[in-house]
Amino acid sequence: MAALTQTISANVNSDGVTFSFNQFNPALGTLNSVTFAILSSVDSNYFSVMNGNNSSIVVESPRDYLSVYDNQGSNSNYYGNDVPLVTTPVTVPVGYTLAGNTSQNFSLIPKSLIGSNAVITDLTSYSNLYTGTGNVTFDVVIAPNVTISGGLPTFDMSTVTNTTTLQLTYTYSTKVARLLSNGVYFTNTYFDEVTYTSNKVATTAMYSREFDEVTINGGNIAKRETNNGKVLISGYFDEVSGIV
Prior knowledge:
Helices cover 0% and strands 54% of the residues. It is mostly beta strands.
């Protein structure tokens, strides 16, 4: 059993960012499982509030939530809950009073939007959507907000920085060789007539006492193995093209 893991980190904003992963190439073998994970999603940096009125305002309850959209139609959409953000100056649990005609930047203490554990989804039942030579994509969006009472406030959350890390893992059974009906024998390793005196298939090489593409060439039997450790084929041995 082998595993192929792709991990992507990107900065995310309220406009959304698309994460693109490679599909599982069936030339590698037989796909056994697909696992998707949101490993982390952390807010940082700051947001700003401007009070354009003479009277004071109260800034409180800054928050954000994460959404991940699975563009394949498999079952991994994630809709997070509002996560309170911790700031300097402090806005929770008591709001921050901002005097009239002033502005204030609120620095964010880095905060996870998914808690302390990764969000993991088993997508094995959708393996057909993840198999091929193209890409699979996930859209990630954040929605930072803040509550302000009184005055004539404006605020800018576009400076909130979020870094999200997604991971897609395929486990599969390795395929090292393929035989066509016309006797052409492909491998993505190589044919070794030195190491062993018997027939053996491994993930690193194809072993035999002798690989014979002459004796039964052109015959009706594509491949035959003998008791004395020979492999005979009616076509030819190909360790250049890979498994096609």
